[in-house]
C-alpha cells in the first residue's frame, strides 16, 4: 500500500501572524530611526543657519554695511539677538546705530526661526560685532537643543566664531 502525501496549499494562520509580527517590528524600528534622523537634520540645519547669520553680522560690521542708519547716525555694528520674550524660537540680525545724543538705535534687518522641536538659549545680551574690527562687545554662546542633543556657537571678544 502506497501512501500518498498531500501537499499543503497556502499558508497557515500561525505563519501569517508570524510574518505580520516581523513586518511590524521592522517597520517600527525603521520609523524610530527615521524620526531620530529627521530631528538630527533639523538641528543641523538650524545650527548652520544660525552660524551663517552670525558670520553675516561679523562681515557686515567689518565692511561697514549700513541698511538702516540715517545720515545723522553712525553705524556701531551688527548684532545677533535671541527673541526670548516675543518668540523664543527665533533670533534677529540687527543693525545698531549711534544717534547724535549718544543713544543707540537698533533696527531689525531680518528675523529667522528654528523648527518647533528646537529651543534657543544663552546670550542674554545680544552679541554685537563692532564696525571695522569685528571685535565683540558682548561675547557669548548660543545653544540649540532638541530632545536628543545640542549644538553651540561661541563668539569670543575678538570676534572668532566657533
UniProtKB/TrEMBL annotation:
<keyword id="KW-0812">Transmembrane</keyword>
<protein>
    <recommendedName>
        <fullName>Prepilin-type N-terminal cleavage/methylation domain-containing protein</fullName>
    </recommendedName>
</protein>
<dbReference type="InterPro" id="IPR045584">
    <property type="entry name" value="Pilin-like"/>
</dbReference>
<keyword id="KW-0472">Membrane</keyword>
<feature type="coiled-coil region">
    <location>
        <begin position="40"/>
        <end position="67"/>
    </location>
</feature>
<keyword id="KW-1133">Transmembrane helix</keyword>
<dbReference type="InterPro" id="IPR012902">
    <property type="entry name" value="N_methyl_site"/>
</dbReference>
<dbReference type="Pfam" id="PF07963">
    <property type="entry name" value="N_methyl"/>
</dbReference>
<feature type="transmembrane region" description="Helical">
    <location>
        <begin position="12"/>
        <end position="34"/>
    </location>
</feature>
<keyword id="KW-0175">Coiled coil</keyword>
Amino acid at each position: 500500500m502506497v501512501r500518498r502525501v498531500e501537499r499543503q496549499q497556502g499558508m497557515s494562520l500561525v505563519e501569517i501572524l508570524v510574518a505580520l509580527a516581523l513586518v511590524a517590528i521592522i517597520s517600527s524600528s525603521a520609523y524610530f530611526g527615521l524620526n531620530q534622523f529627521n530631528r538630527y537634520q533639523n538641528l543641523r540645519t538650524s545650527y548652520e543657519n544660525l552660524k551663517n547669520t552670525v558670520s553675516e553680522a561679523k562681515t557686515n560690521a567689518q565692511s561697514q554695511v549700513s541698511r538702516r542708519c540715517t545720515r545723522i547716525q553712525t553705524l556701531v555694528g551688527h548684532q545677533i539677538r535671541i527673541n526670548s520674550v516675543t518668540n523664543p524660537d527665533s533670533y534677529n540680525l540687527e543693525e545698531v546705530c549711534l544717534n547724535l545724543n549718544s543713544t543707540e538705535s537698533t533696527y531689525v534687518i531680518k528675523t529667522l526661526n528654528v523648527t518647533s522641536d528646537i529651543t534657543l538659549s544663552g546670550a542674554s545680551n545680544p552679541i554685537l560685532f563692532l564696525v571695522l574690527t569685528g571685535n565683540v562687545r558682548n561675547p557669548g554662546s548660543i545653544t540649540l537643543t532638541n530632545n536628543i542633543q545640542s549644538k553651540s556657537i561661541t563668539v569670543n571678544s575678538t570676534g572668532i566664531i566657533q
